[in-house]
Amino acid sequence: MKRQEAEALADIILQELKDPIDIQKVFEKVEKQFTDAPQLIEFISTKDRQFRRIFYLESERVWFKLYGWTMAKTLMFLGIISAVLFYISKDRVDVANVFPYFIFGASAYYLFLYLLSINRYSKNKKKVINIINNYREELGSILKELIQQHHLDSEKYNISKV
Fold it and tell me: Domain total for the chain?
């Protein structure tokens, strides 16, 4: 890798540490400026790995929220249908006692699902923070390696300012 390419890559990494950008924009910058460079490949794979981990955790939260609401609506709908069926057959079942139990069951199920999800989401948020911190450390080590190999200005690429 030439010194000019090392400086361009160090600029991209420093910018990524200051304000992370989308992976496609990184690929566009890299395509224009670089030839073969091992740190470049390491940088891009680190960026992609961080993005995928966060995406998985965030999408799981959205999916679980929508799934839980779908399950709650289904149970409430079944409770109403069952109450109507019991109402039709009033001679055999006391409707006044059955309907509240169905509604209570559906509500308790949704509340239980919601309370469990709060704990799960807080654990996922901690994982996202850890992934971001690990990502920043990996980028910092790549930047330090570039500075050492190509004798770049360490003041210009000072990570502690970020």
Answer: 1
